[in-house]
């Protein structure tokens, strides 16, 4: 049984901050020990800015995460790549192979959220959500097929509990995450004969930049952002505590080393969804 990622090479999209950073650090952790490429984007190619400059973290932030990985004694690489671009996805995989020597674990984590009831949703909001959350996963996975097949690698797509159940104001986001779960199970069956495993993680709620935006936008009258956040944690999570990037990183290390697990969408959510 393989429980180590020593001599493995990983690539994490949207890896500069939040969940992606947590996954990148967990994969690089001394016990796991992968070398890690961190891909992120400075500005999005298209779409309205729902949380302005805060929605993307930028290449400098990717460089800071790469430096943290380097400080753990692993080789690291920061890559500027927008996952909505086929050319960027191809060059991000090529840079990882060229600079780090291959690719064994692809983590498709880049994602965006916004709040919009269906009646008021504009096409740009729908389009950007699907461009990043769904097409970005497809393009990243497609670009990595040759090297993953050659090395018997694996893919971990970051979906959400929003890929298991609906939520008001999030029809576009939930539809995109259901799509990631469906893509993951289909792709797992396509690549099983090549010994490439494809799984997803469905995180619950984490106070990353994404939830700073949601907690602020969903504030009840007179409520602070902290109170809004706490209300959602208590309402939504049976275990009564939020998830952390380290929790998601732990699941990523498990899926990266679980040789007989493929096609799964693993909830890491304190009991929000039980299927
Ligand atoms: N925070 C939560 O509660 C939560 C819950 C379930 C699932 N998720 C999912 O986890 C993933 C990470 O979210 P997070 O909470 O860390 O959010 P975040 O906003 O902190 O991080 C998202 C990262 O993705 C990057 N990114 C956005 N668009 C990109 C693009 N086109 N190309 C490359 N990088 C891009 C951003 O720059 C940022 O670094 C997302 O897919 C999100 O949908 C988050």
The number of strands is 7
State the CATH class of the largest domain. Answer: Alpha Beta
Summarize the biggest pleated sheet.
Answer: 7 strands, parallel
**Strand composition percent:** 5-15%
Q: Spell out which ligands are present.
A: nicotinamide-adenine-dinucleotide
Describe this structure in words.
A seven-stranded parallel sheet has the order 3-2-1-4-5-6-7, with helices on both faces. Mean pLDDT is 93; it is low at 46-51. The chain has helices at residues 18-28, 59-71, 86-100, 123-151, 171-191, 209-217, 225-236, 245-257; strands at residues 9-13, 35-40, 76-80, 105-108, 154-158, 197-203, 265-268. The longest helix has 29 residues, at 123-151. It folds into two domains: 9-204 and 245-265, NAD(P)-binding Rossmann-like Domain (Rossmann fold); 206-242, no CATH class. Helix 3 (86-100) packs parallel to helix 4. Helices cover 45% and strands 13% of the residues. Residues 13-14, 16-20, 40-41, 44, 56-57, 82-84, 109-113, 132, 136, 158, 160, 203, 205-206, 208-211 line the site of nicotinamide-adenine-dinucleotide.
Topology, element by element:
Blueprint: E1 9-13, H1 18-28, E2 35-40, H2 59-71, E3 76-80, H3 86-100, E4 105-108, H4 123-151, E5 154-158, H5 171-191, E6 197-203, H6 209-217, H7 225-236, H8 245-257, E7 265-268
Parallel strand pairs: 1-2, 1-4, 2-3, 4-5, 5-6, 6-7
Helix pairs in contact: 1-8, 3-4, 4-5, 6-7
Bound molecules: nicotinamide-adenine-dinucleotide.
């Amino acid at each position: 049984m393989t429980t180590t990622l020593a001599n493995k090479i990983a690539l994490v999209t949207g890896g500069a901050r939040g969940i992606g950073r947590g996954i990148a650090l967990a994969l690089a952790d001394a016990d796991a020990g992968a070398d890690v490429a961190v891909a992120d984007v400075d500005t999005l190619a298209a779409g309205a800015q729902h949380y302005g400059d805060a929605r993307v973290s930028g290449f400098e932030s990717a460089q800071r995460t790469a430096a943290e990985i380097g400080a753990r004694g692993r080789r690291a690489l920061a890559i500027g790549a927008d996952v909505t671009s086929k050319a960027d996805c191809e060059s991000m995989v090529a840079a990882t192979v060229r600079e780090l020597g291959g690719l064994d674990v692809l983590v498709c984590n880049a994602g965006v959220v916004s709040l919009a009831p269906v009646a008021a949703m504009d096409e740009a909001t729908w389009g950007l959500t699907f461009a990043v959350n769904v097409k970005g996963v497809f393009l990243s996975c497609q670009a990595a097929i040759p090297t993953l097949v050659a090395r018997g690698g694996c893919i971990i797509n970051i979906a959400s509990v929003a890929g298991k159940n609906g939520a008001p104001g999030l029809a576009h986001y939930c539809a995109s995450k259901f799509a990631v779960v469906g893509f993951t199970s289909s792709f797992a069956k396509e690549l099983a004969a090549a010994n490439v495993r494809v799984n997803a993680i469905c995180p619950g709620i984490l106070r990353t930049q994404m939830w700073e935006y949601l907690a602020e936008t969903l504030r009840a009258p007179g409520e602070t952002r902290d109170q809004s956040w706490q209300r959602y944690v208590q309402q939504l999570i049976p275990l009564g505590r939020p998830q952390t990037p380290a929790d998601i990183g732990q699941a990523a290390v498990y899926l990266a080393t679980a040789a007989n697990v493929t096609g799964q969408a693993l909830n890491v959510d304190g009991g929000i969804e039980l299927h």
